[in-house]
Amino acid sequence: MPAEPLLTLQPDLPALAVRASRRVVKLYGAGIGGEHGYATGVVVSPDGLVVTVLGLFLETSNLRAVTPDGHMYHAEVAYRDDYRQLALVKLARYPENVDTEAAVAVQMSPINLEALTPGSTANLYAGDWVLAVGNNFKVAEGDEPVSVLKGIVSGRTKIDAERGTQDFPFRGEVLVLDAITSTPGAPGSALIDLDGQWVGLVGKIVSSRQTNTFLNYAYPIEEVQSFLRDAQSGARTATRPARVEAGPGFHGIRLSRIAYRRQLPFVQSVAPDSPAARAGLKADDLIVSANGTAIPHARAFNELCERLHAGDELSLVAKRGEALVTLRMTLAEVPK
Amino acid sequence: MRIASNAAVRAVRLAALLALCAPLDRAGAQTSATPGNSATDPLAVKRLEQALFRQAMQRVAPSVVTIETIGGTQPVEQPSPGPPAPREGRGPGRRPGGPRPPQPQARPEFIIADGPTTGLIWSKQGHILTSAFNFVREPSVITVVLPDGRRFVGELLARDEVRRLAMLKIEADDLPVPTWVDDAQALRVGQWALALGRGFGGRDPSMSAGIISGLNRKSGLAIQTDAKLSPANFGGPLIDLEGRVIGLCVPMGMGSGLLAGVEWYDSGIGFAIPHGQAFSSARDLAVGHNLRRGLLGLRVDPRFRRGVRVAGMGVPSPAQRAGLADGDVIVAIDGKPVREYAELQRIMAARLAGEKVVLRIKRGEEQLDLTLVLAVPEDIGEVPGGGEEEAQTRPAQSQPDQD
Question: What is the ipTM of this complex?
Fold first, then answer.
């Protein structure tokens, strides 16, 4: 008697994964010391444009891309975005590395790859299943399909992250994942939802300053599309969004200073008639949060204020005795 | 006959699944699949799961609070003297997947970050149960932000060193207390478990999905889950698909240090304190009573293989006060047989200072029952050759089974 299937309602995740894995490439470049010389890229146009993360692996004249059919291409960085930490790579035929097994005509023909079409994260919520499809630990070799990780979207949030001692400049919203994508080769993976939509791109390995843990995250696909638009518009190098031209902001707050690494953000004095004075801040108040961000130490407050300009709003929560007071002010020009 | 009836059972199950889908859609818990497609949609089960995850999270989210701490110092203690973390090459300061760069010895293994942490409303009157990990730095100021945005100064009432819990109090009233699974028998290995946390900020708590991997772990103190736990959700709830709290997420690894277990973050080995343990802890914590690990104050002969033989004790110590003598062999604790030191360690890891234990010992041909009141290390004199406090922070050595 034939065995009865245990469950006829089989989740068909494999089909989604296979479709996506035909549209990503394995990238191999420079590896130095602990930096891994490989990553993943997503094919965004049939003629060989691939989006990936910025990384040391790109810093070589011998960047290679292996397509799902096992073909190896020469690759060159066509566009870099230092703010988003993304790169666009262009594949080219490898004339000096002709595969003698295949017909020369095929090898010299124009590149024609299957590309992933961006979807939308408008209906993607925390808790939704996603697949991350990429070159994790470069375990898949040649024409072997890349690795597929399953997880859920943990949430959408802005991250404050660093890579080693370097700041991770991107400050936009990301999709935090509960699949472990902070592993070598995974950056640049395609994130796919249950509808098979391309909904995100796994970012490079960074650690969160908020938790001091490695982050598993992806750029929402809309961010990737903005990147692709910037790349198309031909700007040589994208940077942070242009700031409103304004001088540095003045709040009039002086924090107490003792030679101590984690100085508590106690207010030592408030300049008379300054924005902080008018808002009602007093000496000995302890600043607890600024513009919605917790201020664990004086340095955090100073760093936050360095990014503000005259005319910007500063909203503070301060502890006065056992009570919390909320104060709002508009920063002024620095007095001459 | 039998096949037909099995098919009928499956049809009923599928119908039940689809019936579950429908109210979710009506309630606005958006699923991209419409129930009408579900019969032919091979991903119907997955879609149902994700809708249920979200619904469960939203049910508990109003009780999941953000904790901010200000000031304090980094502990310099090593989190674990135990074996290497399960995933080599992970953990802050290490390059993922690569060899660990050499680090100065005095540097702590895990730097506690400045970001927000998580707590769970325990009482309507403003008690917040959370993980003791969140206060390792001994912060000068603690604030609690409710999901509705209200911010309060939090008072740290007390800590539980054994269950790694802590209780805060805020001056708030009418807070939404979540429902707990209070029947330990109702929990099953393999059932869905979602961990919620506030460590990444954002409007909703972040969520990681997994299952219950084990019950009665860590000397019966904890439930084990493969949902990813980290400083982003330590202190937050582990919930079931009905939005009931299974346990409170805490780091628990090898060793008894304050940071023990952090090195296992996001590894798929995570622990949560279930209702029974949380409840008995909270009773003490809410009245400002710190709970400490209880020690016997004795040393065990490491060369003795046929049981647990006393080879020294502190003066004073619970062991000395109860009249134990060097050479006594401990054969049972509170009626539980003890054949080797690791077993004694396992039992003692869950015991609190102030608790009584009955040791059955063999002294020559004689068997004696001695009652000890467990003490904190500060109340125990120096144990010759090092006491159990030191020994217990070492992982129990795994020994081959002997028959």
Answer: 0.81
